[in-house]
Amino acid sequence: MTGGAGYIGSHTMIPLLAAGHDVCVIDNYCNSSPQTLEKVRQISNRTFEVENLDIRNRPKMVEVVHRFRPNTVIHFAAVKSVPAGQMRPVDYFDVNVSGTISMLHALEGIDCQHVVFSSSAAVYGELQTAPVSEAHVPQPSNVYGRSKRMAEQVIEDWVKSTANGVSATLLRYFNPVGAHPSGLISDASCTEPANLVPIIMQVAKGKRAAFDLYGNDYATPDGSCIRDFIHIEDLADAHIAAVDYAPRQTSVVKVFNLGNGHGTSVSEVIKTFENVAKVPIPVTIAPRRQGDVAVVYASCEKAKQELGWQPKRTLEEMLNSSWHAYQRCIEIGK
Q1: Catalytic residue among 144, 173, 245, 326
Q2: How many CA atoms does the CB half-sphere of 200 hold within 13 Å?
Q3: pTM of the model
Q4: Does 269 fall in a domain?
Q5: I want to staple 146 with a disulfide (CB 3.0 to 4.6 A). Which of 57, 140, 179, 274 is the partner?
Q6: What is the CATH number of the domain that holds 131?
Q7: How many domains does the chain contain in total?
Q8: Domain residue limits at 244
Q9: DSSP 236-289
Q10: Residue 144 catalytic?
């Protein structure tokens, strides 16, 4: 598992370990912490291998992969900020594309049959339609989305060119929210956040004066943008379904959207959080941001039909778990 110490990777490790899999984590902690893996050990009561390693280090990747000899790789390792990608495009292509190439090179000569790739709805670009299905042609509109799409294409061509029946599952996430029920691992919301829910929680704790709502005049019921939010544990479960799916598929690439399958407005998220946390959230109306579209949410029927997966947890559960983890984070000061 590359990037296993990150938000999605760490949450995926818990059901993966519970299912009895042996795991080797490769991470250089550029946007995560080794402490997260200690918390995973505490939650799971399992041991696993860890390598402090940049996936672009090809010789070391070959050494680690050939020693561990995985039958499946879950490839999370990436940089993921849309604004940062626009400012540092070469870095983003280097990590997200060259890193993927390095990972695939490391698999040469071992019997690894399956790659599960952590992709993103950002590959679709600025779509003006909803729901978004896997049939939509990817037209990424920013560096991050393009880097993820290029990595997908590299994996697709790798599968086509490999003679031993490998397969790949490309998982396109929408908006992960929430935390493990223990509160031990979360979306690192104690640091400076860029995502919706961690920002709301900072307002709730008085770390920000108000929440900036970017536009309240969209063609939606309450005027705010509508997005698709999925609980991190549902997302983790989808990765387990993808790993289990591998033995039934060879020499194919499958793409699946992972979301809740319906949209929730930003204003609805704020109101739901207020109900869950019993804390008022002051809102300041700000100008629309360039590139924001009114409505984006996923069609997840393909994942339901082929992976046998569907989300189970509600928005209230997402926000309650995030709030619990954030308060715990504040209390312990890390």
Answers
A1: 144
A2: 26
A3: 0.94
A4: no
A5: 140
A6: 3.40.50.720
A7: 1
A8: 7-177+229-259
A9: HHHHHHHHHHGGG--S-EEEEEES-SS-EEHHHHHHHHHHHHT----EEEEPPP
A10: yes
